[in-house]
Amino acid sequence: MRIPYGGDYNPEQWPEEVWKQDHRLFDAARIDTVTVGVFTWARTQPSADEYDFTTLDRIVERVAAEGRRICLATGTGALPPWLAKAHPEVNRTDFEGRRHRYGQRHNACPSSPVFRQLSTEMARQVARRYAGNPAIIAWHVGNEYGGACYCDLCAAAFRDWLGARYSTLERLNAAWNTTFWSHTFTGWDEIEPPSALTEHWRGPDHTAFQGITLDYLRFMSDAMLANFRDEKAAIREADPTTPVTTNFMGMYRPIDYHRWAAHLDFASWDNYPPDDTSQARMAFTHDLMRGLKDGQPFWLMEQTPSYTASRDVNPLKRPGLMRLWSWQAVAHGADAVLFFQLRASRGACEKYHGAVVGHAGRSDTRVFREVAELGAELEKLGGVTLGARTPAKVAVLFDWDSWWALEISDGPSRLVRYQQVVLAYHRALWDAGADIDVVPVDADLSRYDVVFAPALHMVKGDLAERLEEVAGRGGSVVTTFLSGRVDEDDNAFLTDVPGPLGPLMGIRVDEWDARGPEFVNPVRLDNGPVVDARLLFELVIPQGADVLGTYEADFYTGTPAVTRNAFGQGYGWYVAAGLDEVGVGWVVRQVLDRHNLGGPYPDVPDLETALRVTRDGTRLLFVLNHRSDPVEVIARAGGVDLLTGTHVHIGQPTRLDARGVMVLRQP
């Protein structure tokens, strides 16, 4: 066994004489796994009552004959044109209330009975035909689920969803606070999807009733999950064991991947960073994907070997970057490394998207050479990393409900973005070299010594009590401004901010001040630097907490900006302002130092370490140099580099090339 290596392959786009050339090139690149059939619905089902598997049969037979493994898709990632024409109601209605005609992808109404029936039957037909084929190692349902629909079918389904959630209109009216603006509903059929025609102005994030909009976001995520579950159930009729997945998109706001996670046999995701300096952001997203299934490894389902074609500007991956980022994925839990795409499309919107094999079919390009070299490395590594886990003692909470609720709120500031706040704290942890799990708010926290909960706007269920348990047994809990504001219905707690987090934090927030990005209030940190704070400034009154940072300007000069509260054997930290990178880093290092949880090279910028532990207890330390120049350090961790066979001894000078990688098997 070895890490599956390959990617998305669409041979239906080319004549069969090209296939032979492709497979020769795949051999040269050590590609052993292909994802096929992702967008084959129109070809496989050319009309309502006709299935034609001729092309897909030849594709599957050829791939299997070449000895490669198959991730077989159901083909339902986009509608066929005949279906949209025969049943116009399957086309989505957008936020502005416009019924769309046929085109693009992500183009199906998830509530349409016709779509659900025919997509499920498509999955059933594919599974019946190919179940039991030993080349198939995974099923791939749909593709990059996303978007939203606001049609009458979705309105009816939304009302049914609300009925199941709230049972009574009395409960719904209380949750949505409908006494405001005379919105009390007296019949379920009075409820409309929140859109530009109803509750919204200036776009999807500006709503008169946050509760309605929040529930529609939850509903739409669940509606698309129902589509996935329909197809998975159809597959299971023919194949009860082969794992089923779909490809996520990392920090994708419209879909709550935590609500989906239990229904996937393994998580997989498509990694398309916005620039060449996204290494910390990618580390966060890998950690998020790994956290979806309680630390279970995931698949890197897609990445470009060179450049994307979906943005205004699409930079080329510099030499060595593809290899480095692939190894970073493995370091954070990837059990597969796959590309989009294996051969470049000839036409349409992805013809300039990067590919392992370009339009000319050459093997002497830099991109192909780097793909082949990585394939050889993965082949040499074998299966040693498969199934390995990350023994993190630090957790970062990530919550789609808090994300949604914070960013659809009319105040205190629309400039504060949930994602940016969470990333700032994860980046500081990443810089310090900590191994991190990114987990949902209902995760088991008993194995963590440190829990960061930045911008935990919504506090649900028993979360406050579980955070208190972390601190009570000697751990540290860190949260920030705009935390503990609302309950699960997005209604304010009728108590001082930070609501149920108040006893743990030992503070109350009396007022808050929101300003534009040009406004800076310096914060003086205890025995530390003076740092800048921007966007939001909460005015804190300690209720037992110690003050570790104070504002330096405005009428609240000298009042607390950073506090630490003794709670049980541990602490609750509260950061009341939008500290800059240095300030966030100071807080993070203070917390990690108490628990001795930093990495071996916390003071070497962009030298990343990540630990995985195999099923037999073998420790694998990944060391990754994200710099464009070599770095030399005194080794603080030893072992045998599985990529080169080199022995690294603690205390000896060790050099990593620019964008270099080591995988140390530790004694």
UniProtKB/TrEMBL annotation:
Protein name, per record: Beta-galactosidase
Entry EC number(s): 3.2.1.23
Residues that coordinate or bind Zn(2+): 109, 149, 151, 154
GO molecular function, one term: metal ion binding
Catalytic activity: Hydrolysis of terminal non-reducing beta-D-galactose residues in beta-D-galactosides
Residues the record marks as active site: 144, 302
GO biological process, one term: galactose metabolic process
Lineage of origin: Bacteria, Bacillati, Actinomycetota, Actinomycetes, Micromonosporales
Organism name: Asanoa hainanensis
The Beta-galactosidase C-terminal domain, residue ranges: 608-666
